Each structure stands twice: as C-alpha cells, then as structure tokens.
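User: Can you help me understand a structure? I only have the sequence.
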Amino acid sequence: MSENHFAKALKNFTMDAAAGDAIRHLTDKGLSPSQIKNTLTFPAPMDYITKVMWDRLVETYRIIPDCSSVDDLESFMSGRRQPCEIMEHRDRYGRKSFIKVQKESPEEMIFSPEDYIVCDFARRMRSGETFTNDYIIHLPWPDRPVLGLSEIFLP
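Assistant: Let's start by predicting it. Here is the structure, written out as tokens:
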C-alpha cells in the first residue's frame, strides 16, 4: 500500500471515529448541514459532513439515487435486497444446518411513493436557479434526477 493510500485511509478512519456517528445521528434527527457543522465539537469540513449525510440519506431511503421518477420507485422497492439472517438449525439426530431467514431491519424506513419528489437540483443550480434550503445548497447532487422525500426538500 502506498503512502498516499495509507494517509487517506487513516484520515477517513480518524474522521469517522471522531464525527461520523454524530453526523449520522444528527442527520436522522433532521438537522441541516450547517446546523450539524455548528453542533459538532470536532472540527469537520463541510465536504465530509455532506458526504456522510448523503450516504445516510441514501441508506435510510430518504434519497433514492437509483430512481429518476416516482414510476421507477415501485420496481426499485420490490427488487431491493431484503435483510436476512443466518440461523442455525439442528435436526432430530443433532446434525447442524443453516437456514437463511428474512428479517425486518429496525433502521429501514419505508415511505409511500406519494412522499417522494423528483430532485434535479444539480441541473437547476447550473441554470442559475437559487435555493434557500440548506440541504439543497450543500448536498452533493448528481447530474441526473433522483428521488427525495418531499418533507426534506420542499419549504
């Protein structure tokens, strides 16, 4: 491993240990990027805060980057991988086998399709449109439309 890769991995580890869980927790509580930056006691750069926030919003299905319209949402939700658990099972002779069991994830948040809007903020910002919503201004929006929860992105 080269020095550059090691330094980058060490920096990522240090930042995640110092601020990652706090950023994810505050994101779940609904704080904006600027509010999180002001709340943290460890100095984290805004780029890192918004990256961790983006990943958390995607993990909890508040942003769905794989869908560009509400019509895509139903096929995405039916095709996503369900969380599962491997359980040990013994038959009457004591032989061990394993069974894959689907389980409900307590973190999983499922919203109805009516709760989502198409977010094409990168294109709209490039065209000169200005926004006041802190989420829209700071998050790293891709160049293509994505789905996002309307309660976060609408005033």
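Now, to help you interpret it: The chain has one domain: 3-70+111-153. The chain has a mean pLDDT of 83. Let me know which part you'd like to focus on.
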